[in-house]
Amino acid sequence: MNYVQVINIIAYVLCVVLFAVMLYFKIRGNVVGAVSELIALAEETGLPGSEKMAMVVSELYEKVPGVFKALLTEEDLAKIAQWVFDWMRKYAVAYVDSHGDIKDEEIKETNRDLLEDMINRLSSLSIGALKEMAEKLGIDIEGMSDEEILKAIVLSCLLK
Q: What is the DSSP letter of 46?
């Protein structure tokens, strides 16, 4: 065996290893993204923590391909979900700690700007589009003027 063959074998092995590493990180990223999304959806339900975790795990288990269900138990998925949740919490705490110097006035000004932008965008919509949006939000618009519909939409968005 000459040195060219050895180099070719080493190159093939490195390619396989690099492909495996890339595949691992791609799958890991997809799993973390899916779990993060499920955690965010569970947080919106207002359920107690254990019920939110059960919801995340059951929905995550449904997404696992049948071939891998024998390898990934619900306990394993619960550990993964807990790891992602802890990571998200750690990130959020670090973010708040590093941005602790933000003043209430800055937050209020930002919220004012966002509210003004939302009102401007809603004001540019046709009355038909506003009525459609109100229906999607579950707002009873019977007998309301156009301005009252706009106010009801803004209020509904603020409350959510």
A: T
Contact of 158 with 119, CB cutoff 8 Å = no
Residue 16 pLDDT exceeds 90: yes
Which of 156, 158, 153, 119 minimizes the C-alpha distance to 133?
Answer: 153
- CA-to-CA distance for 137 and 131, rounded, in angstroms? 10
What pTM, to 2 d.p., does this model score? Answer: 0.51
pLDDT tens profile 33-48? 888 888 888 888 777 8
How far out from the chain centre does Cα 135 lie?
Answer: 25
Distance separating alpha carbons of residues 57 and 39, to the nearest angstrom: 10
**What is the band of 18 on the pLDDT scale with cuts at 50, 70, 90?**
very high
Q: What are phi and psi of 144, to 5 degrees?
A: -90, 145
Is residue 112 within 8 Å of residue 94, measured between CB atoms?
A: no
DSSP states along 72-111: S-HHHHHHHHHHHHHHHHHHHHHHHHHTTT--HHHHHHHH
Does residue 153 contact residue 134 with C-beta atoms inside 8 Å? Answer: yes
- The domain spans of the chain are 3-98, 104-159
Determine contact, residues 119/111, Cβ cutoff 8 Å: no
